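ingest -> validate -> predict -> emit
validate: passed (alphabet ok, no gaps, 173 aa)
predict: started
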Amino acid sequence: MHSAPSVVYPLGRSFVQGLTLLGFWLAGALVLGFWWAITPGAGWRLWFTLTVLLGSGMAAAWRWKNSPAGQLCWDGQVWRWQSQAYLAGMPGRQLTVALDLQRTMLLRLENQDHTPLWLWAARSAMPERWLDLRRAAHSAQRVLIAPSSPGDRAAAVDAADDLTELPLPRPGS
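emit:
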């Protein structure tokens, strides 16, 4: 089996993420509008819901505007996130593809402390390396960072053995 190619891919604010957040917010605004139209008087619950809707819209816009921007690097063994905050790069423990829409992917990079960093990757950022990123991301679903201690190595070997010992489904069953 061949390993996925090394790749450095730029990530930043995602148009798809922005549209998704806007769509959810507009759906909430539409429901609130219908509620307002069928309710005879604007009670405190309606005003409270309007306040929550506006607050969630501002929080979503702030989150989208401040999306992590940097480079996701795969050297064939370890994922690394490089940004202004992590100039030397933050080594990742595991990268998971949470959503793959062919031209956009939502990635979850987990660091050594098991803290997730959610990243949106778009084909438009670097079309010539898009397929390399997809290959590396999907092949790395099974690859963890190289163990640093003998105990970690033994656990990684045991986990790999567990994966290879799964029974295969039988045709017609």
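Residues 143-147, 156-169 have pLDDT under 50 and may be disordered.
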